[in-house]
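Appendix B. Raw example, untouched.
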Amino acid sequence: MNSQQKSPTPTTDPPAGPPLAILAELLENFVLAGMELLADRCERRESAGWIDMKVDPLTGEDFPASDPLRGHDVIYGWIQGRALEAVAGAIQYFEERACAPDLTARLRHLLGALVQRVQGVRRSNGGHLFFFLDASGRPFELDRAGKRVPAALDAKSPANFSDLFAAKGLLAASAVLGDAPLATEATDYLRSVTQEIFAHSFVTDQQALDPANPVRPLAGRHALGPFMISLGSATVWLETASAAGQNIDEPVDLGMRLLTHIFDRHVQSPMGPPVRPGVMAGDVWEFINGDDKPWHAGHTLPSDPGHALEMVGLAQKFLRAVRISQMALQPHHAAIVKRADALLPSVLEANFATGARFSETPTDQPHATARTLGGIVKLVDLRTRAALHTDMPWWSLPETMRAAMLTEETINDQSVRQGCRRIWQACHEAFFGYYTG
């Protein structure tokens, strides 16, 4: 089998799905409702200053305060950093469209409070954030017995995912809040984190809550995740710098370096021989070893299709920002863009085909069929195509929708555009049919 072969396609074409205009209105209302809920919950506990969405979606009730993972005294650094970017993005979206002015004012207030909270934690911990914090901002880990153990952080501690999310979130917030000193600090923070990512001194701070999802750092194993998420950082940096009339050479160069790293080390090119038996064009392996070769777990070659699809969306979003900037690209950057335009559609198709799982259970959605998409599995062995982790997390569906929509926007080939549309429409049906109320 060589890399010219296409990945298998789902056994049944996804349903036609709703027209784009209907989908856009549905998603806008979904965001409005989500931000309204977020504001309501944060205002209810305003003294806390943290984003608090620890609510049981089946009952609408808060989890018990005593819950060791979902109580009010457990703050997730990842969520706070991501919330900075999400709330800033919602404010910008609403203001551009002159809609929801009351909600926007509330979001501005809680964004400012969250910035202060995050910055306070960083000042107390050598400039770092962490996966687990208590309500006062003290970082902790869980030992094997599930008991809290303080996590010591200082200026010499390596950067982690919470830092990565916080850096780009603070930068996004600075633009919305018009805070130039924060923008300077956040840019320096982001620059420092990405330097550690390229140096492989960056570490994951994710705590192992699911035995089937191995997240502990291993010596000599380097993940796609930090590079993929940093594509989003490059985009935020590019957009905020451009809006402020600043030079955008550095964020553009960062994004191009990230794309090159990912394409060279994590993606099977259609033009080259397969890196391992069974690997197909567009496949993405999750880890590399110290020699920049695919990392194996025993006899398996792990791939996270959701991460691969997320990467496509973040890459396309960065490339879209570059196009909007109308920057005159240097020849080597133009070559990277050309490579991305050729490669990303095959990555989208291959990883959707590898990760998508269908069920026989019909839904009550108006566009559903008897054979509908259930979700995208968490982990697959690229050598056998067997699922290593059969959970299907919600987030991979909207990430895939973004990837497919932005890819469709850049492609002239009608058959590829139709494939993109089938993918995002299928993910739309699955997301609203299985994962939302």
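End of appendix B.
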